Amino acid sequence: MGKERLVLVGNGMAGMKAIEELLAIAPDRYDITVFGAEPYGNYNRILLSPVLAGDQTVDDIILNRVEWYAENGLTLHSGCEVIEIDRFHRRVIAADGRSAPYDRLLLATGSNPFVIPVPGNDLPGVLTYRDIHDVEAMLAASRCQKEAVVIGGGLLGLEAAYGLMKQGMAVTVVHLEETLMERQLDRPAGELLKHSLQARGMRFLMKTQTAEIVGDGRVQAVRFANGSEIPADLVVMAVGIRPNTALAQRAGLYCERGVVVSDTLQTFDPRVYAVGECVQHRGQCYGLVAPLFEQAKVCANHLAGLGYRYYEGSVTSTKLKVTGVELFSAGHFQGGRDCEEMVLQDPSAGVYKKLVIREAQIVGAVMYGDTADGSWYFQMMRDATPINDIRSTLLFGQANLGDSGHGGVRQTADLPDSAQICDCNGVCKGTIVEAIVSKGLFTLEDVRAHTKASASCGSCTGLVQQILQNTVGNYSAPVITPLCRCTDHSHDQVRETIRRHHLTSLEAVFAFMEWKTPDGCEKCRPAINYYLIVTWPGEAIDDAQARFVNERMHANIQKDGRYSVVPRMWGGMTNPAELRAIADVAERYQIPTVKVTGGQRIDLLGVKKEDLPKVWGDLSKAGFVSGHAYGKALRTVKTCVGSEWCRFGVQDSTRLGIELEEMCWGTWTPHKVKMAVSGCPRNCAEATIKDLGVVAIESGWEIHVGGNGGMKVRATDVLCRVASAEAVKEYAAAYLQLYREEARYLERTAHWIERVGLSYVKQRLVDDAAGRKSLAERFHASQRQAQEDPWTKYAEPRHADKFQPLKEVS
Amino acid sequence: MDGAKSRWLAVGRPDDIPALGARVVKTAQGPVALFKTRTGEIFALLDRCPHKGGPLSEGMVHGGTVTCPLHGMNIHLDSGQAVAPDKGCVPRFPIKVVDGRVWLGLTACGKPASTLL
Ligand code: SRM
Ligand SMILES: Cc1cc2nc3c(=O)[nH]c(=O)nc-3n(C[C@H](O)[C@H](O)[C@H](O)COP(=O)(O)OP(=O)(O)OC[C@H]3O[C@@H](n4cnc5c(N)ncnc54)[C@H](O)[C@@H]3O)c2cc1C
Ligand code: SF4
Ligand code: FES
């Protein structure tokens, strides 16, 4: 059988995204023909505004040049408008007579700018703002004309006005409503925006209705309903868009406001798909690229015959691409009856923030002046994160949850191109912007892959997201974040499927969940392996090839390929015999560096791979076990000297620390776990920045959870107080088990608790005594398998091969 | 042996290399990593990541690529090229499997190093 024929009508952003996605997953399935009314390849429409403002050129914003189509085996008819779809014979016919047969048809005709029906609207000098042609016409006008009137104070209107102003024209914006961008902003934010644009010289006529465009042979003035009139050499109408459904309607496809499509992006004729601004899905039409790209992905999946993805609508956020204006809007920002609003206003700093809360979740946000936390709020909105526990600091932003910050930088808009954004990989702002523009990047993942910014420790993620928003305008992501590029399923879906369908191996998960790659990748393999062993302890086999090198080798790999070895020192305690044994090992194997770690134990650095089994063997003989300094596992339990020696100590913190470490070592967890026990509230063991911290008080112990001392410092929350060391241990076991069973892989307790809320953790551990006991029991059951020292095991001669080269030749 | 410049060395049996894993042969030209894919194909690359010299043999093998354990760069096993958009290239070595033995050709070369079992 020959290939099926796919025809795309509309060579724009959504349609071509669908084709690119399709080529990535099913490159050989179709012969593809593309019709585009515009005489170019495919370009990044979003960036027309920077072209108008003179910051970029048309060349910069081309996504796929005409040659690209041929190189990828596509037939392109550019400058060629399709005027008829013959559904009976399954072919499309263009105005110039060209035609193409199809087996499947994809409509992505975008939308048309709305032209207000007033006399004179067809005079030369009256333009809309939609495509390259419009921008070129505006640029030409700006070279010889002075007065511009932009009708419409929405997103597009303001971007047009700003661009024309930068080209030297005097610009008046005419707006029917009281508030600029009323679909994205509330009154106060709209006012702030107006003031800042006025300060740059933009003029506004608010609550003003246009009655007529006046001119003799070309535009000369605009007249309003109230009888007044202003001169105009150029008029730009940016009053809204209408989904372009004419072609679909003529072909008898069911349309309302847009072409109506199902969750699989099919029209009422199942051979005909539609994506982009021309469609209406569950009653919604979208006018931003992010949701359209989500549609494109789902559509490609169905065109490829995979058929397991559904489009369920999108949550979107908006950003105005006007340099120096920081503005963010998302969701139900106007609030309503069942909502409450939280507002922060600092007029002198030009800052306004409003969050709309419903049922303890963020459902909308408007921010002006300081938008650094926009992506954070947006994330919580999409994840439906309960905010009860952080209400009091929510408006002040993520920094006030204890983020150690990023050199104090919160706004990227005013930074010079040379400012370093990613401190791990040394990536500057200019490099990021350049990559976004020249490579047509739209997502954080794309930016990471191309520039390495925020791809290492991730603490500059918020800044990179801001740059992305400032450059491409908006940011949105699917409600479900896939685990990795091998699947569309999320962490939670994978884990639930493993449990529900009793899957016990990676192969079973890949087959059952239709993985796109045969072996998974470096991201999903370790995650799935973890979910398997924690869900089915003793039954699922731990897969060594799904472990990161450190966990496979039971030592930390070093920059030069050697390893470091950290034996456990229970609760930070040691003695002369242990120290002597370590000294002997260090000398015997000529280990170059011996260091005291930040976790109260000793690190032997620079051990050759071949020597690992011998080093471990000798350490085992001296009574040591692995310290798991390499694992997503219990690391250290830090203690202070406590009541045994200290004049302030109220409880035996050292003893409890040792007991906790003995109880918990060997467990595998979503991310590493650190604990500490302090003997009094002076807290010398720094228990309040640990995943689990215990602070002795006169009447017993105070249990703390969710601390982190790493990239983002977070002080713990108090879980509860208990009277005995036994009770601490029960809580600790239950807490670890809850974390093991419910947190996502690579999510530390701090992030997990911020996501699910402290109240939830309290409810499971404090309020529900029976539940706590059964969690603790499950923990102990799994520990019976887990507490086998890997070092003793791998020091045995039968494993020796693993650590030796296959062969040495000279 | 074939070709004047190559020196072919028997280094072991295919089973010595774990599927989706690697073993190292130490040579005068430096450590060479022998990778085995799920389908049993064996590839040999110099055991040094083009980024900062990480030991590729300790990386995770998936599909036809390996992820460097140090900073996560992905390398195509057949070409030695970094997976786009990363850039970089590792020298390849030819591999032959004959009579159940793995032979390593010891001149770093540009020709494809893959042989199906
Ligand atoms: C050895 C040690 C530094 C030292 O010389 O003291 C160390 C060394 C490493 N740390 Fe650490 N960390 C060490 C204490 C800490 C501490 C302090 C502490 O535990 O009291 C912290 C902050 C506390 C915390 O984690 O909340 C710390 C925060 C990190 C982080 C950031 C974690 C975070 O969630 O923000 C990483 C990165 C990661 O895990 O993804 C990291 C990762 C690493 C790794 C394992 C990098 C890696 O993945 O290979 C380093 C291995 C170096 C090597 O070549 O062996 N290390 N690291 C310390 C070992 C403690 C131990 O005995 O096990
Ligand atoms: C100036 C401007 C700034 C914007 N800024 C942002 C922003 O910051 N953020 C954001 O998310 N979105 C922004 N948008 C919106 C975004 O560009 C659109 O949502 C997106 O381009 C819509 O994609 P689409 O494929 O549905 O339509 P389009 O990209 O418009 O593509 C449709 C294509 O189909 C062609 N076509 C139509 N009918 C036919 C036919 N019968 N035969 C052949 N070809 C046909 C059209 O000529 C057009 O090229 C902006 C839009 C504009 C105009
Ligand atoms: S030990 Fe920790 S802080 Fe030091 S360089 Fe390594 S990861 Fe960074
Ligand atoms: S050394 Fe391999 S990725 Fe850095």
Radius of gyration of chain A: 31 Å
Biggest sheet record of chain B: 4 strands, antiparallel
Enumerate the distinct ligands.
siroheme, flavin-adenine dinucleotide, iron/sulfur cluster, FE2/S2 (inorganic) cluster
**How many structural domains can be distinguished in the coordinates of chain B?**
1
Structural class of chain A comes to: alpha/beta
Strand content of chain B: 35-45%
Count of DSSP-assigned helices of chain B: 0
Major β-sheet annotation of chain A = 5 strands, parallel
Low-confidence segments of chain A, given as residue ranges, are 403-407
- Shape, per Cα inertia axes of chain A: globular
Structural write-up:
The complex is a heterodimer of chains A (810) and B (117). With 810 residues, chain A is an alpha/beta fold. Chain A is built from 25 helices and 39 strands. In chain A, a hairpin with a 4-residue loop joins strand 28 and strand 29. The longest helix of chain A has 18 residues, at 725-742. Chain B is an all-beta fold and 117 residues long. Chain B contains no helices and ten strands. In chain B, strands 2-3-4-8 form a four-stranded antiparallel β-sheet, with no helix packed on it. In chain B, strands 1-10-9 form a three-stranded antiparallel β-sheet, with no helix packed on it. Chain B starts with 7 loop residues before the first strand and ends in a 12-residue tail after the last strand. Classes of the chains: A alpha/beta (810), B mainly beta (117). At the A-B interface, helix 17 and strand 39 of A face strand 1, strand 2 and strand 5 of B. The structure holds siroheme, flavin-adenine dinucleotide, iron/sulfur cluster and FE2/S2 (inorganic) cluster.
